[in-house]
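Subject: two folds for Thursday's group meeting

Dear M.,

Sorry for the delay on this. The cluster queue was jammed most of the week, so I only got both jobs back this morning. I'm pasting them in the order they finished. Each block is the input sequence followed by the predicted structure tokens. Could you check whether the formatting survives your parser before we put anything on slides? The first protein is the one we discussed after the seminar.
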Amino acid sequence: VIWQHKGDNVSDCWMQKNGRVLYADNCITEIDPETNKVTFFYQPKTRKGGGTYGCQPLENGNILIGENSTGKIYEIQRDGKVVFELQLPLYQVGNHHNLRMVRKLKNGNYLVCHSGKHLVREYTPKGKIVYEVEVNNIAFSASRLPNGNTLVGHIAQITEFSPGGKEVWRFTNKDILGLKINAICGVHVLPNGNLAVGVYAAYKHGAEAGLFEITREKKLVWCYSNPKSDRSMMSIQMLDQMGKPLAGALVR
């Protein structure tokens, strides 16, 4: 372990180019690993059902926040000023599964996981739904791929959908013989096309995969397992040997 920082139940986490770490654990925190100084902090007014589970550092320096407790997404400046706000449909007021991952796309729209509804939707800034896919379990993470497809992590599997919503690829937690995988959550699409995957309740019911990497041919590259130390590693971002973000576009 090169560096660690105690948080709550961390569901989304980013290593940024400036070396700072941004994470969501009911609140949103940015910390400088060199000094352990908190450089940004956001606390939702209400945390019933769980405050914030999704965040994203934006190219303009702002931070995108998905607030589960209210079903809202915000863009917030580093000084705390809210520059964008969008109310999304709620699964249920105060429910634990209103929102999970949220991502701002290159076209300016927002890709949102409505976890309890088992839906992934793309919204315009005015709230119009322009894309929607339904999955068979909790919609935890979603990424827009360079080819225009959408990759969704939803507990029992990872599914890739075409722009028209057709399933074009899937990986299930039973596809690797001899490896018991519990709840698939965050997915990092690596430059070589492989997928690095984070797992919730990693060792429950005899499961043994905390983090793992697979090829698109569904072959296991590596698996990390440490039941004595780690329990849930929902978010994963692969780094280079210097601990920096990998070169190229970050798709996760």
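Second protein, same layout:
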Amino acid sequence: MSSSPSSAAASEGIAAAAIRRLTALTPLADADLTLLDAAADRALTYPVRHTFQTIGRPVADPLLLLQGWAARVRILPDGRRQFMSFYLPGDVIGSTHHAHPIASATVVAITECVACPAPTAPTGSGLAQAYAVGEALDEAYLLGHVVQLGRLNAQERISDFLLEIYERLSLAGLTVGGSFEMPLTQEMLADALGLTPVHVNRMIQQARRDGDLMWKSGRVLLRDPERTARTIGRLSPQVTGTQTMPQARVD
């Protein structure tokens, strides 16, 4: 599943989405942006199915995802898989706070990815706070997935998942008028939501007929994210009392 990364050509804006996301979490100072720009100069491109970390093996130095999607996944002995979470631009892969960390899940590239070493954030800096808020959000989304898998019906699971992705991509400035790129296949979505591909397809077709979404050519359009969120009772996670998290909305 693993393959070798290649050097990413330095280009203007390669880290733009990641920086937008981190800045949305906490305002960043010029010194923080300088650290991020320097790290982006060392970015590498990783092919689809590249393995960033393997369950049970030591965790490598953390990487800041600049472009693309990666997934945290468990493969069962009989070949079944469960996608537990997805990394999007601005997320840190392999963030740990203890010595000699061992990976609790495998992380693979879902699309071609561009990532750079996550710069060490000085204590008390905006970047350190952005990292901390990002980790708190990651935990909040994982807890949300427990509720999603345990209590929501199939249609609600799909809507909740798409709203989460929409919210997260909105922070990085990667949504346009309620739409966003969706590189996951329906089979992958099924493996993330504990459903069968047939059931996922049926629910998506129903949502299309109801006028809630369009899914075509690798792009999803949520026609009214706020209404969909109200319908399923979804609340965007709030993890800090000192900073109001931006809410997903149609531009």
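Two things I noticed about the second structure. The chain has a mean pLDDT of 92. The first helix runs from residue 16 to 25.

Cheers,
T.
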